[in-house]
Write the structure tokens for this entry.
Amino acid sequence: MARYIKANPKVAAFLALTRDRNTVKDGNYLLWQADMLAFGPLTRLTETLAQIGGIALMPHEAREEQDGTVTRPLPVATDPRFVVETAQPEAESEENAPTGDDSGAVVEDTTQQAESPAEGTADGADDPQDADPAPANEETNDEPEND
């Protein structure tokens, strides 16, 4: 059965197919199985996919990619020509990066909230965000509990 090949934009550009093949929601391309003949015979499709960092998809899987209902990640290409640089979290600026403790858990920066109390109050204690959320059904709060 024929397969579709999900590959990154570098592969599509290498094959000069960026205008001829469909893109999916994550910016990658759906190529045809016959397009892989440029890399060698189809009997070596597994090696070709590892080289270009692509995956083979059944027709229904390719449709899911086009619809955006499923997004399958691509493996890293073994051929340096097709390696796609991904944004690393360390590249974020220090101002926007979350802070963490020794356990690796993310801790939110609350310095701005503590420094600026809500308008109209002296200490921000009456801030509606600080209050407990209202119960979903207020009738149940008025009835006495039976033990």
In short: The mean pLDDT is 77.
